[in-house]
């Protein structure tokens, strides 16, 4: 059996549920309402049939985020997340470039890389070279002035940690941002690139090895195997082409307000809600969400 979770916070009603059921019943006449996770916010529908076909059938229901998956395992024991434009609302390298008056130039390269139109490592090195000579203290200034957490990120991670899951932050960005962000949100592991500094200024180089799409994938596999988990136990979320490999490897790979290069390979997409909606996806009611 499979579950289709419908999410429309504050707006989910019988009309929307019936519309979704009508589409599912074209695939499985016995498809039925299963349960409210939180009445008016999120509910599960149950059906038997092909999961990709159900995803296609339910796609495009206006204002709804819909996640279709097997009914087991519902709770994921490993959560892997990208940082920039996923756990935080910014691309840190673009924000840094703004302090040097280079935002437009760097942001254009970032966009092409996230769309999958530029090779990531080369694009990263090109952008970092443009930052050569920047005072190291600008990193902390940028973190304090520009970086904001995505809605629901902390609630999601803290709730998963409280439930015994391991949470890994993997970023093609920089440890100078990823480490404090991981601490703020509650991740217990972090992987990211290290900017090289000489004489208190950025050298324009990045330390080896580069954390790119392959490194993100390898980090997921390494931690998964260390914990003795299966692919089905892993939930991963990201937004760009650099996240594609880890999203494909995860048992449930979610694209968060993502580029087309990622949405076309992800198992699901969050377009309308914060990251805490992934707790509904795992069957967790609001009353059990971490609120500290």
Set down the secondary structure blueprint.
Layout: E1 2-7, H1 14-24, E2 32-38, E3 42-47, H2 51-58, E4 65-70, E5 78-81, H3 83-87, H4 92-99, H5 103-114, H6 120-130, H7 137-146, H8 153-162, E6 166-174, H9 175-185, E7 189-193, E8 195-198, E9 201-206, H10 213-226, E10 234-238, H11 244-249, E11 252-256, H12 260-263, E12 268-270, H13 277-281
Parallel strand pairs: 5-6, 5-10, 6-7, 10-11, 11-12
Antiparallel strand pairs: 1-3, 1-4, 2-3, 8-9
Helix pairs in contact: 4-5, 4-7, 5-6
SSE string, helix = H, strand = E?
EHEEHEEHHHHHHEHEEEHEHEHEH
The first-level CATH class of the largest domain is given as Alpha Beta
Morphology call: elongated
- In total, the number of domains comes to 2
First and last CA, distance? 35 Å
**Helix segment count?**
13
Which percent bin holds the helix content? Answer: 25-40%
The pLDDT mean sits at: 95
Strand content: 15-25%
Just name the CATH architecture of the largest domain. Answer: 3-Layer(aba) Sandwich
CATH superfamily of the largest domain: HAD superfamily/HAD-like
């Amino acid at each position: 059996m499979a579950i289709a979770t419908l999410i429309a916070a504050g707006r989910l009603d019988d009309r929307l549920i019936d519309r979704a059921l009508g589409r599912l019943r074209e695939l499985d006449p016995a498809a039925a309402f299963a349960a409210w996770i939180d009445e008016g916010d999120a509910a599960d529908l149950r059906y038997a049939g092909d999961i990709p076909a159900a995803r296609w059938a339910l796609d495009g229901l206006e204002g709804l985020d819909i996640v279709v998956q097997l009914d087991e395992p519902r709770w994921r024991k490993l959560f892997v997340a990208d940082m920039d434009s996923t756990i935080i609302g910014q691309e840190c390298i673009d924000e840094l470039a703004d302090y040097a008056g280079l935002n437009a130039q760097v942001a254009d390269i970032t966009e092409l890389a996230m769309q999958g139109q530029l090779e990531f490592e080369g694009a990263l090195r090109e952008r970092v070279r443009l930052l050569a000579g920047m005072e190291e203290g600008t990193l902390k200034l940028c973190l304090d002035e520009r970086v904001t957490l995505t809605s629901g990120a902390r609630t999601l991670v803290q709730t998963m940690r409280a439930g015994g899951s391991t949470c890994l932050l993997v970023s093609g960005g920089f440890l100078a941002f990823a480490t404090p962000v991981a601490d703020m949100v509650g991740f217990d592991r972090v992987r990211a690139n290290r900017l090289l500094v000489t004489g208190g200024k950025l050298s324009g180089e990045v330390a080896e090895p580069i954390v790119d799409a392959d490194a993100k994938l390898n980090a997921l596999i390494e931690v998964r195997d260390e914990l003795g988990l299966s692919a089905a136990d892993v939930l991963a979320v990201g937004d760009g082409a650099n996240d594609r490999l880890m999203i494909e490897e995860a048992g449930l790979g979610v694209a968060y307000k993502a580029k087309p290069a990622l949405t076309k390979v992800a198992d699901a997409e969050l377009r309308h809600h914060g990251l805490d909606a992934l707790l509904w996806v795992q069957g967790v009611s609001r009353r059990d969400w971490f609120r500290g």
